[in-house]
Amino acid sequence: MKQTFTIGAFAIITDAENRILWCLRTDLDLWNLPGGTVENGEAPWDCVIREVKEETGLDIVVEKLIGIYSKPEENDLVFSYKCRVVAGNLQNNEEAKEIEYFDFNKLPRNIVHKQVVRVKDYFDNNDRVVMVKQ
Fold first, then answer.
1. With a cut of 50, which residues of the chain have pLDDT below it?
2. Catalytic residue among 17, 54, 98, 100
3. Is residue 73 among the annotated active site residues?
């Protein structure tokens, strides 16, 4: 039996004050890093560029792979990238009802915990790619 996986790609985008960009989802009351599921035939780094544009209105470039996260119980593999904004303006849409930068030490309570761990990895391990089972 052939095993299938879901692949996700998420952006870690900082502003001039080193705050992280988060999106408040419209389908759930949760803050999430911009990103999503890789489509058939799409590279994860292309996915994160597309998803950030769809969810935030921003054009980005991928600067660095931060981490690869395996979620074996869900057959999920997630890539986390450091990205930089090159154009665009923040705009709410059907996927994100609020978009905001938050200081890592002042995150909202209703936030995806696994993504908080990934942001911590960004701040703690800038010199290497993190590989973790979540």
1. none
2. 98
3. no
